[in-house]
Automatic annotation (TrEMBL):
<comment type="pathway">
    <text>Glycerolipid metabolism; triacylglycerol biosynthesis.</text>
</comment>
<dbReference type="Pfam" id="PF06974">
    <property type="entry name" value="WS_DGAT_C"/>
</dbReference>
<dbReference type="GO" id="GO:0004144">
    <property type="term" value="F:diacylglycerol O-acyltransferase activity"/>
</dbReference>
<dbReference type="Pfam" id="PF03007">
    <property type="entry name" value="WS_DGAT_cat"/>
</dbReference>
<keyword id="KW-0319">Glycerol metabolism</keyword>
<dbReference type="GO" id="GO:0006071">
    <property type="term" value="P:glycerol metabolic process"/>
</dbReference>
<dbReference type="InterPro" id="IPR009721">
    <property type="entry name" value="O-acyltransferase_WSD1_C"/>
</dbReference>
<dbReference type="GO" id="GO:0019432">
    <property type="term" value="P:triglyceride biosynthetic process"/>
</dbReference>
<comment type="pathway">
    <text>Lipid metabolism.</text>
</comment>
<dbReference type="GO" id="GO:0005886">
    <property type="term" value="C:plasma membrane"/>
</dbReference>
<keyword id="KW-0444">Lipid biosynthesis</keyword>
<dbReference type="InterPro" id="IPR004255">
    <property type="entry name" value="O-acyltransferase_WSD1_N"/>
</dbReference>
<dbReference type="GO" id="GO:0051701">
    <property type="term" value="P:biological process involved in interaction with host"/>
</dbReference>
<protein>
    <recommendedName>
        <fullName>diacylglycerol O-acyltransferase</fullName>
        <ecNumber>2.3.1.20</ecNumber>
    </recommendedName>
</protein>
<feature type="domain" description="O-acyltransferase WSD1 C-terminal">
    <location>
        <begin position="314"/>
        <end position="449"/>
    </location>
</feature>
<dbReference type="InterPro" id="IPR045034">
    <property type="entry name" value="O-acyltransferase_WSD1-like"/>
</dbReference>
<feature type="domain" description="O-acyltransferase WSD1-like N-terminal">
    <location>
        <begin position="11"/>
        <end position="274"/>
    </location>
</feature>
Amino acid sequence: MHANDGEFMRASDAFSWYQENDPALRATIVSIIWLDSSPDWDELRARLDNASRQIVRFRERVEEPPARLSTPRFIIDEHFDITWHVRRVQAPSPANASAVLEIARTDAMTSFDRVRPLWKATLVEGVDGDRAALVMKVHHSLTDGMGAMKLAPLLFDLSRTTTHRDEASAPKSDRHGLLPASIANDVVQTARLVASTAKSAVGAGPRFVRNPVTSVRNAVGTVTSIAETVAPVSNALSPIMQERGLSRSLDLVTVDLADLKRAAKAADATLNDAFLAAVTGGLRRYHEQHGTTVDELRVTMPVSIRKEDDPAASNRITLMRFRLPVADVNPASRMHKIDKQARRARNARSLPFTNAIAFGLDLLPTAVAGSMLKRVDFLASDVYGPQFPLYLAGAKVTAYTAFGPTMGCAANLTLLSYDGACHVGLTIDEAAVTDPNMYVECLRAGFAEVLALGKPEKPIRRPIADGEYPSSYRSPNDLPADAEK
């Protein structure tokens, strides 16, 4: 699971890295691991330290070439200090879930220290008495949602009893000069792109002779798809979510996974379709509450291009933009329309050219390339997590919430399923969404609308109240008789 010291960023990661010259486009992921008690502090820090030894990327910092002459690379931080990356604090007043969300909110709005590895973890203790939460902050270039799930075995146990892990040795640096190596890397990457294009062209010749009409149609389709991928967005489709700023609001919505699956099945749709239908239903209500209507909204959806042998410490997604129906009040009908659009995005002809596109965009000024991301109405993604309880240094993980970066959108909505529940983390740009509380309540209503298709046995879980932990926590009486408490 090691990454190589001195490894260069993929072009897509370099693109997001350089876009951070505009603070509105920061690629910071914040997650909250909610715990039923305080974990063993020494064990927790040892776990994170050992994980950083095995996943070298978590001990590396980014080194940039001068004047953006080439691609940045990851190099070992020779001054790595685990005590800087892993901290322990008492929950500030009112010492409840809202206090934890405020800590996560601050992390989401704060830039990384670029001379250190791009992650940090804060254990928050004394939450609602003896509960706790681990707030993790990671740059998107280190990993994506699926990659984070592959990292889980290094941190978590399947019972309260901690499992011994052999301590790995600290990685050592073997890097050479940055600029010559960077230029050499870019030459190699460019040669590969040219070779790949040439190979495609050579293969296209016989295909053109056999079927010229189809070949021309495919070529036009590929060019059109690439053009759609890089086209700038001049205005948001929402008439009321036009502004963009730097302040963020974090919140969460939790529903039962079985209920959402049942609703999707009732409409002969996928779980992702049901999720997006709930979101668009909520956004329709939010616009209605502000005295306006909208037919469609533009979404950015991460599409995974991860392969089985890709390292966990890597970002293997590409961002696709497309329009989704909002005005349709029938959730089942809306799901079918969404499914058609989402499938088109996942099968876009531009996907194989993701790295080549990013390589070209890296050469453009930040403002020009960033126009591709800004003015998109929302970003939505879903990650399927473990459907069984996990334990962290002796404490039970009762909920797991991820808050993705807005990256120029009005809001990011990330669904992470864990142990039978879907936890939707909301990262809201407060300049775009002027009434975050109403926005969240409208989203809850959107989920209720979709869940009604499956006639769920339980109502949508109510929001967090002051002095209360997320409603996804279950009391001991709600656990199966054979479950460990």
